[in-house]
């Protein structure tokens, strides 16, 4: 068997950006119920160091999947890369799932960003990258799911769509919620941390987050959405006291063990999509 061809500079740039986007999500604080460098949120089994070990293990994956996308690889090739990356993540974290959703979504987006850049000779619009994922719609919907995973059980129990359906539809939540919120915040002059927090709460307010459903059921999901909407209606991260207000919401999340992990994955994807538009 021939050794794999070396990855292109483009794949390395996009791979580094994918990891940097996950680190930006981790570093953003406060984030209700989620791990930050300062606290564990609603998680007793992981902290920031767990996430850093995971990110270190995933560095090669994002380069490899970007290169595969640039080379127009078949969806099955991308899927096998993702399965191997998940195994590497679990080895690095002693079995703790820190980035399964990001391996899936951010991997697909990195692959399409590389493919579109290679095709057009310039960085694609974020929305174009999302829509390009729909080219794999049939394969995405046909791919087997783990019936024992928390997400799959919540999909069946509550009758809601998961990340696979989001991908098959071209990530409408990224296009309609996350990216507009992020762009508005940055255009208004908010610092990165505030812009990310604002975007996260816009997502929590709208997403049927499977992790929230797993931890709190329908009642927990609706409670988290109400708190997020109240935060946004009160000015969100545009107010100077946004950190204190978000910290209080975080206390309510932790009291009920709520953690919007699906929204956090989408936040990292939104930051990646925004930043890749500027890759030269």
Structure explained in plain terms:
With 280 residues, the protein is mainly α. The protein has one domain (9-276). Helices cover 69% and strands 0% of the residues. The protein is built from 13 helices and no strands. Helix 1 packs antiparallel against helix 2, helix 1 (9-27) packs antiparallel against helix 4 (100-120) and helix 9 runs antiparallel to helix 10 (192-206). The longest helix has 24 residues, at 210-233. The relative contact order is 0.15.
Helix content: 55-70%
Assign an overall shape: globular
Structural class of the helices, strands and pairings?
mainly alpha
Average pLDDT, to the nearest integer? 93
Strand content: under 5%
Give me the count of strands: 0
Helix/strand order, N-terminal first:
HHHHHHHHHHHHH
How is the quaternary structure best described?
single chain
Largest sheet: none
Uncertain regions: pLDDT < 50 for 5+ in a row?
none
Estimate nothing, just give the exact number of structural domains.
1
Query: Rg to the nearest angstrom?
Result: 18 Å
Contiguous helical run count: 13
Could you give the distance between the termini?
34 Å
Write the SSE topology.
Blueprint: H1 9-27, H2 48-70, H3 75-92, H4 100-120, H5 126-132, H6 137-142, H7 150-158, H8 163-168, H9 172-187, H10 192-206, H11 210-233, H12 242-255, H13 261-276
